[in-house]
Design a protein that fits this description.
The protein is mainly beta. 8% of the residues lie in helices and 46% in strands. It has one domain (13-157): Beta Barrel (OB fold (Dihydrolipoamide Acetyltransferase, E2P)), CATH 2.40.50.180. It is built from two helices and eleven strands, in the order βββββαββββββα. A six-stranded mixed sheet has the order 8-1-2-11-10-9, with no helix packed on it. Strands 3-6-7-5-4 form a five-stranded mixed sheet. β6 and β7 (91-97) form a beta hairpin. The protein is globular, with a radius of gyration of 16 Å.
């Protein structure tokens, strides 16, 4: 492990998005694009949090609903909903979010480890940390832990 040099702060950029009233973020280097909500083709026998697949310029991309992943109530109003196309391992996956807020910048020393009993909404295993930005708390998700190895394998099978 590399020791931090005193006085040096590392800036990071994240893409912020909403699920209900809560604001979440993913590291910007994991987000390939923000896609408008589109028709999603259902896939038979898919896990409950998988909405289906879309054709993204010739590439079949599986789409997961983060609300379902986190066992949140469904959002009846999908007017502002977006699909974040993210890189998960070597694959692209779309994640439905209620809305995208903005690209934010903050420093690594502004991120605190999430307490074990962090949120009634989502399991702390998905949370990389919590950042305080102005008066807001931003929940930084660990995208690599959102899906288990088995679930990632299932998503890969949709592409064939």
């Amino acid at each position: 492990m590399v020791a931090k040099k005193p006085g040096i702060r590392q800036e990071i950029q994240v893409v912020g998005f909403y699920l209900g009233e809560d604001e979440y973020a993913l590291f910007i280097h994991k987000v390939r694009e923000i896609y408008a909500m589109t028709e999603i083709r259902k896939v038979p026998k898919a896990p409950q949090f998988v909405e289906g697949v879309i054709n993204l310029r010739g590439t079949i991309v599986p789409i997961i609903d983060l609300r379902k992943r986190f066992d949140l109530a469904a959002n009846d109003s999908k007017q502002a909903a977006k699909i974040l196309i993210v890189e998960l391992g070597k694959n692209l996956v779309g994640m439905i979010v209620d809305n995208v807020s903005e690209v934010m910048r903050f420093y690594t020393d502004e991120i605190e480890k999430a307490p074990p009993m962090f949120s009634a909404n989502i399991s702390s295993q998905y949370v990389q940390g919590v950042a305080k930005l102005n008066d807001k708390l931003i929940i930084l998700l660990d995208i690599e832990k959102l899906l288990s190895f088995e679930e990632q394998s299932v998503l890969k099978s949709f592409k064939s």
